[in-house]
Automatic annotation (TrEMBL):
Residues 549-615 form a coiled coil. Belongs to the crooked-neck family. Pfam families: HAT_Syf1_CNRKL1_C. GO terms for cellular component: nuclear speck; post-mRNA release spliceosomal complex; precatalytic spliceosome; Prp19 complex; U2-type catalytic step 2 spliceosome. Residues 92-391 form the Pre-mRNA-splicing factor Syf1/CRNKL1-like C-terminal HAT-repeats domain. The keyword Disulfide bond does not apply. This is Crooked neck-like protein 1. Residues 1-21, 693-712 are annotated as: Disordered. Keywords: Coiled coil, mRNA processing, mRNA splicing, Nucleus, Phosphoprotein, Repeat, Spliceosome. The gene is Crnkl1. It is found in: Nucleus speckle. The keyword tRNA-binding does not apply.
Length: 712
């Protein structure tokens, strides 16, 4: 029957479909993929970004009576209990629950929650710490002691429990209790820091004997450790630093005999099989401080005879220093030089371009060997020319030549060889690509020391012709200045300024030279040429120097003209302020009026300035001027010109054009700007409306006050 019905239903459906016209589906002609494809990664990233969108904060709930408070507590407790029931092992849920109860001063409930949490996971360190901190915060000292006792009993290897327990007892003034906790801790033979904490605790209370006994126990406990391997006792050697600390403790408290005994015990304890250079270095330095130099020498020799050379580098170094200070220098330095020389030879063979190793090697050779050996090593070093002609690869290499030349001049006293070294170096340098001005200047200074001025001038002239640099010009000019050859200085300055016309410092120095020589017109002409240059590296320095020059010459009209010319180029606020201060310091009768006019003119000129801070700076300077020299009317006027500082917000955009949020900034509204007057009115109306809103809210919160006021 079901099949028949289905068959009949199918017939009816087909008949109905035949009667109704089925709409045609449009065929897709272009089945190519779209140009912009959206990947699954983009969808996930967009979903993640939308998760980070700021949600509106939940509405604040105000509780007005006890029933609402109890209802709120019940709901919160139910929420916490549900979270705990869902996952009991998440300790953070327990801690949040307990802290919430603690915030309500429900200490007993919080305590119960912590205890339930400890039943779940008693190995959680954070849980014990939070529990104990709650008790300490609420001044429940005995409860806190109980918790710390349980914690250190349950987890004795967690040092944090012991540290906090002892600190609490010490803060409570219970020194004996703190010492008792330390003693319980030491029974577990903890790490080194625990022992040092105990020692420092005793030293804080001037218990030196107790600290000494702790050191003894510490060393012994670190010396013998029972290890159950085939029922045998294994000797575990302690670290040397523990013995050294013990000895230094005795030395610090002036028990020198005890300190020496500790060192001797350490040497005996380690024997010859486990000798350590640090122990002997510390022992020798102790004896050196006690002025026992023979003992020091015996200790060093004993250790050097028994410790392998590769393990005794520090010992050897300290022995050398000691012999240099107190003993026969020759004997020990021969050994040191031969050993270190071998090391440096290995280094330079492995990498001939390791110039630092060459420097160390040469320093060693210069201090101990003859001149021929030193020259041989220098020749080998300078033969390793950098393979690439780039200046950064030559910066270390060039000092080999400099040191070589200085050695020949100062140590070997060979001026001819020194000249040959300088000339060979200058021939080697690729001057078309780069040069070293330092090398040219050193060569010229050497020739001057040899009283050979023509060669020095020739060298510097060659350097300027081959590879002109600022440093070379400055050095050459400085040389001629010292020789008082002012005509040569003028020519050099001319060449220098042809080479670098944008260098303001050169123009200023040239003008200062002419000023010193008394040729004011030439100096002024140089300044005029300088400020007429199209490109300058520091134009503000140049203008300031020119203005200061005219002020020194007391040419006040020319100074004013200079300021006006400068203001035609820039309207910077510092220029206006400097001009006003100049007018004030000019010392003429109308100086105050002139200064005030400058401020007026500057204020008008800076109304169109976009940088409002500069205009504020100008007004501040004007106000300080009026406070010192002005009348009440002028002070009142400048006060009216001062802007109002308001806070605004503006939208930020990231580098990719996306929205980056809002930024607060301060803006200034000047009373003079008529365009800002509507904004000021709107701001005043907004403040008035806000004040009215606050008054109406206050009246709504206190209706009894309104009744009393109406009756009154």
């Amino acid at each position: 029957r079901g099949g028949a019905c289905a068959h009949g239903g199918g017939k009816m459906a087909s008949t109905a479909a035949g009667k109704q016209r089925i709409p045609k589906v449009a065929k897709v002609k272009n089945k190519a993929p779209a140009e912009v494809q959206i990947t699954a990664e983009q969808l996930l990233r967009e979903a993640k970004e939308r998760e980070l969108e700021l949600l509106p904060p939940p509405p604040q709930q105000k509780i007005t009576d006890v029933e609402e408070l109890n209802d709120y507590k019940l709901r919160k407790r139910k929420t916490f209990e549900d979270n705990i029931r869902k996952n009991r092992t998440v300790i953070s849920n327990w801690i949040k629950y307990a802290q919430w109860e603690e915030s309500l001063k429900e200490i007993q409930r919080a305590r119960s929650i912590y205890e339930r949490a400890l039943d779940v996971d008693y190995r959680n360190v954070t849980l014990w710490l939070k529990y104990a901190e709650m008790e300490m915060k609420n001044r429940q000292v005995n409860h806190a002691r109980n918790i710390w006792d349980r914690a250190i009993t349950t987890l004795p290897r967690v040092n944090q429990f012991w540290y906090k327990y002892t600190y609490m007892e010490e803060m409570l003034g219970n020194v004996a209790g703190s010492r008792q906790v330390f003693e319980r801790w030491m029974e577990w033979q903890p790490e080194e820091q625990a022992w040092h904490s105990y020692i420092n605790f005793e030293l804080r209370y001037k218990e030196v004997d107790r600290a000494r006994s702790i050191y003894e126990r510490y060393i012994l406990s670190r010396a013998w450790v029972k290890v159950s391997i085939l029922a045998a006792l294994v000797l575990v050697h302690p670290e040397v630093k523990n013995w050294i600390k013990y000895a230094r403790f005795e030395e610090k408290h002036s028990y020198f005999a005890h300190a020496r005994k500790v060192y001797e015990r350490a040497v005996e304890f380690f024997g010859e099989e486990h000798m350590d250079e640090h122990l002997y270095v510390a022992f020798a330095k102790f004896e050196e401080n006690q002025k026992e130099f023979e003992r020091v020498r015996v200790i060093y020799k004993y250790a050097l005879d028994r410790i392998p050379k590769q393990d005794a580098q520090n010992l050897f170094k300290n022995y050398t220093i000691f012999e240099k200070k107190f003993g026969d220098r020759r004997g020990i330095e021969d050994i040191i030089v031969s050993k270190r020389r071998f090391q440096y030879e290995e280094e330079v063979k492995a990498n001939p371009h390791n110039y630092d190793a060459w420097f160390d090697y040469l320093r060693l050779v210069e201090s101990d060997t003859d001149a021929d050996t030193v020259r041989e090593v220098y020749e080998r070093a300078i033969a390793n020319v950098p393979p690439i002609q780039e200046k950064r690869h030559w910066k270390r290499y060039i000092y080999l030549w400099i040191n070589y030349a200085l050695y020949e001049e100062l140590e070997a006293k060979a001026s001819k060889r020194t000249r040959q070294v300088y000339q060979a170096c200058l021939e080697l340098l690729p001057h078309k690509k780069f040069t070293f001005a330092k090398m040219w200047l050193l060569y010229a200074q050497f020739e001057i020391r040899q009283k050979n001025l023509p060669l020095a001038r020739r060298a510097l002239g060659t350097s300027i012709g081959k590879c002109p640099k600022n440093k070379l010009f400055k050095g050459y000019i400085e040389l001629e200045l010292q020789l008082r050859e002012f005509d040569r200085c003028r020519k050099l300055y001319e060449k220098f300024l042809e080479f670098a016309p944008e260098n303001c410092t050169s123009w200023i120095k040239f003008a200062e030279l002419e000023t010193i020589l008394g040729d004011i017109d030439r100096a002024r002409a140089i300044y005029e040429l300088a400020i007429g240059q199209p490109r300058l590296d520091m134009p503000e320095v140049l203008w300031k120097s020119y203005i200061d020059f005219e002020i020194e010459q007391e040419e006040y009209e020319k100074t004013r003209n200079l300021y006006r010319r400068l203001l035609q180029r820039t309207q910077h606020v510092k220029v206006w302020i400097s001009l006003a201060q100049f007018e004030l310091s000019a010392g003429q009768g109308e100086r105050l009026q002139r200064c005030r006019q400058i401020y007026e003119e500057a204020n008008k000129a800076m109304r169109s300035c976009e940088e409002k801070e500069e205009r504020v700076m100008l007004l501040e300077s004007w106000r300080s001027f009026e406070e010192e020299f002005g009348t009440d009317a002028t002070k009142e006027r400048i006060d009216k010109l001062m802007p109002e500082k308001i806070k605004k917000r503006r939208k930020l955009q990231a580098e990719d054009g996306s929205d980056a949020g809002w930024e607060e900034y301060y803006d200034y509204i000047f009373p003079e700007d008529t365009a800002n007057q509507p904004n000021l009115k709107l701001l005043a109306m907004a403040k008035l409306w806000k004040k009215q809103q606050q008054e109406s809210e206050a009246a709504a919160m206190d209706p009894d006050k309104d009744i009393d006021e109406s009756q009154t």
